[in-house]
Amino acid sequence: MNNTKAMATLLMVAFALTACGGGGSSSPNTSSSNSPGTGGGSNSSGSDGSIAGRLDGSYASFNSSGGGAEIGRLVESFDNKNKDVLVVDGKRIQLVYPGISAGKFVIANDVVVGMNLSYARYGAYLGGKDIYLYAQGTGTPDKNMPISGTAKYAGIAYVKGVNYQESGVKYNTADATANFTVDFGKKAISGAIANIVDINKKPANNIELSGVINGHQFYGRSLSGTHMEGDFFGPNADEIAGTFVNMGAGFGGAFGAKKQ
User: Fold this and answer.
1) Which of 154, 95, 160 is nearest to 121 (CA)?
2) pLDDT for residue 148
């Protein structure tokens, strides 16, 4: 498909929300390592639109029945040097086309892309056998990670719910707010995906997320069983992005937020 045709199919979406709540404090998450093959690896800047430094990130996936959930780090794909290209099951998927920009999400060809960050992309690929959630970009060098102080990060999230129901209402897809507090000295991160509504505009519970920081990565699991994986992106921990999944309740999502 050429760029003109692809751009013509792009649709700006303010998603009506789904998904559900969690809560509690975190403990380190034991992540799956068998990702379907989303890109990472070493690279340098160039005329092909690639970004300087390696691609870092995380993924989560589950099937259309809410089962088979997994979450982990991105498997390296050394030929992918561009945060705007996603690799799933060997398929290269263009995330962003020239001339297209947005403050929230863009959807085209079964791909959802969060557009509010400068150093990372995140969202979902809905064209495979599983629901695939991703976050990838230029990870903050570990030597540039702050070792003290706190910071606030604010942004948005995409949520996909399959099995979660409340009062007979089944949640579908959504965009919501994502707000986090980071304590660099304690190597801790906590926050919530909030302002979630279902397809009938009924409010859903917040999704509480928390975890520990290791280098430029973070991970955790809430008391309700919601697993999270993510990274700090940009030269100086300018942004965060990550994925989350609740294997029991059958929902997941991806978020991106900027330092305030």
Assistant:
1) 95
2) 98
pLDDT over 70 at 16, yes or no: no
Which of 236, 242, 235 has its CA nearest to residue 257? 242
> In this structure, is residue 13 part of a structural domain?
no
Q: Is residue 192 part of a domain?
A: yes
The DSSP string of 17-70 is P---------B--------S----B-----TTS--SS-EEEEEEEE-TTS-S-E
Closest CA to 64 of 253, 251, 254: 251
Q: How far is CA 40 from CA 131, 136, 201, 205, 242, in A?
A: 20, 8, 37, 34, 14
Q: How does pLDDT run across 146-187, given as a tens digit for each residue?
A: 999 999 999 999 988 754 455 544 455 667 899 999 999 999
Number of domains in the chain: 1
The domain of 34 spans 22-259
Distance between CA atoms of residues 93 and 111, nearest Å? 8
Give yes or no for a contact between 256 and 117, defined as CB atoms under 8 angstroms apart.
yes
Cα–Cα distance measured from residue 68 to residue 21, given in angstroms and rounded to the nearest whole number: 20
CA distance 137 to 241: 9
- pTM of the predicted protein model: 0.76
Residues 126-137 have a mean pLDDT of 90
Tokens of 30: 């034991």
Q: Which two tokens stand for residue 38?
A: 């989303």
Most confidently predicted of 30-39, 128-137, 149-158: 149-158
